[in-house]
Write a structure and sequence with these properties.
- This protein is an alpha+beta fold.
- Helices cover 40% and strands 17% of the residues.
- It is built from four helices and three strands.
- A three-stranded antiparallel beta sheet has the order 1-2-3, with helices on one face.
C-alpha cells in the first residue's frame, strides 16, 4: 500500500498533465521536481531513483516496489477509462 504522500504526489502529476500515454502499457511522466526530466513507466516498472532503490529503502518488507509515477499511471488509467 502506498503512503498518503505518494498518492498525493501521484494525483498532482495527473492533475498537472504530467502523464502522457505512449503505448498501451508505456507512459512518459514529467518529473515534478525537474521540468527537463521525465521517466518512462509501465504498469509495474519505473526508471526513477525511488523505484530503483525501493527495496534498499524499505528493506524488502514483502511489498512490491512502488513510486509516485506508478501510482500516477493507476490514477490516470482510472480517470481515463472508457
Amino acid at each position: 500500500m502506498s503512503s498518503p504522500n505518494t498518492i498525493k504526489k501521484a494525483k498532482k502529476l495527473v492533475d498537472d498533465d504530467c502523464v502522457s500515454k505512449i503505448e498501451d502499457d508505456l507512459f512518459q511522466i514529467r518529473s515534478s521536481s525537474d521540468p527537463n526530466k521525465s521517466y518512462f513507466v509501465t504498469s509495474d516498472t519505473c526508471e526513477c531513483f525511488g523505484f530503483k532503490n525501493y527495496y534498499k529503502f524499505h528493506h524488502g518488507n514483502g511489498q512490491k516496489a512502488n513510486c509516485s509515477h506508478l501510482e500516477a499511471i493507476r490514477i490516470f488509467k482510472k480517470e481515463n477509462s472508457d
